[in-house]
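Hypothesis: this fold can be encoded by more than one sequence.
Test: take the structure tokens below, design a sequence, compare later.
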């Protein structure tokens, strides 16, 4: 078969099986040499939303692509998924570095923001509808990005992570590192946590990132106190207090912790008997992002 005919057949096959996860190498400045993969469904909405989905320590973009049902929701709802990947520090995100903890300074955070910019430009995405989610180290980086780049991310959903800047001053990011202070439940006052966020982007007065925080109460690797601290941080940033708790949402094991007006900006979930990591609830995350009814 002539090569061009083979190409026609192959592209027809890929249409039948739908879009696939594809690596992008030219997305822009990449100081920590991390990878970008994207999943662009065949049918996009006009001006599509973008979700960055971050793998846990030891993971990869390709394994995490299979780790949640987000790709099938992207097919149904027409948004774009970005899957960053790192092979640094046992495949953990650099949530402790000054680069990532400072707006525009560098680190994995800057590279991830450059991936978002690339996708916004390439697919005429909607800059008002950019989201970030992740599990474990990916959840820690979700908090970091929300703190350093509130102008980029409208909302975040963090599964079993820690507050923004919890690892600041630690020699490396992983909870397996010699310094367990953060992962074992480092505490600060809400004002101190909020100051970390404000100091990451001095002078910024724009929109803040809405945050959804998930954690298992039987997590001994990254203690549930870490989620309590993250909620202290984001509720202080938003100036909201804990107004209501609802047990049994989204399932019997969980209690939903709502801040302000029904948790519109800050919301937590704690799972009784849930360990590391809390399973991703795609529907609740997409509803919080406003991408699903
Ligand atoms: C350990 O990490 C915490 C932050 O998580 C930091 O405040 C502290 O300085 C670090 N200690 C050492 C010895 O690196
Ligand atoms: C919600 O639950 C937390 C954790 O148990 C508790 O500290 C807080 O007082 C509760 N808030 C309300 C409004 O009942």
């Amino acid at each position: 078969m002539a090569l061009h005919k083979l190409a026609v057949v192959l592209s027809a096959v890929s249409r039948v099986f739908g879009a696939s996860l594809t690596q992008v190498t030219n997305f822009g400045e990449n100081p920590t040499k991390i990878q970008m993969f994207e999943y662009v469904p065949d049918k996009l909405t006009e001006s599509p939303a973008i979700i960055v989905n971050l793998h846990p320590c030891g993971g990869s973009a390709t394994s995490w692509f299979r780790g949640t049902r987000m790709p099938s929701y992207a097919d149904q709802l027409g948004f774009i998924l970005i899957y960053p990947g790192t092979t640094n520090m046992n495949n953990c995100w650099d949530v402790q570095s000054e680069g990532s903890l400072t707006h525009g300074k560098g680190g994995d955070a800057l590279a991830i923001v450059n991936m978002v910019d690339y996708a916004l430009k390439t697919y005429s995405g909607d800059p008002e509808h950019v989201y970030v989610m992740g599990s474990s180290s990916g959840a820690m980086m979700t908090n970091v990005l929300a703190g350093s780049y509130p102008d980029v991310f409208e909302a975040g959903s963090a599964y079993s992570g820690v507050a923004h800047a919890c690892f600041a001053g630690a020699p490396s990011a992983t909870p397996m590192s010699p310094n367990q202070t953060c992962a074992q439940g480092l505490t600060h006052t809400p004002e101190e946590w909020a100051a970390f966020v404000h100091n990451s982007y001095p002078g910024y007065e724009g929109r803040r990132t809405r945050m959804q925080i998930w954690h298992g109460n039987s997590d001994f690797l990254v203690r549930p106190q870490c989620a309590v601290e993250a909620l202290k941080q984001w509720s202080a940033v938003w100036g909201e207090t804990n107004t209501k708790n609802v047990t049994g949402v989204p399932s019997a094991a969980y209690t939903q912790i709502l801040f302000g007006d029904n948790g519109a900006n800050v919301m937590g979930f704690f799972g009784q008997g849930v360990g590391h990591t809390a399973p991703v609830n795609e529907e609740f995350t997409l509803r919080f992002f406003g991408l699903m009814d």
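Residues 7-15 have pLDDT under 50 and may be disordered. DSSP finds eight helices and ten strands in the chain.
Hypothesis status: open.
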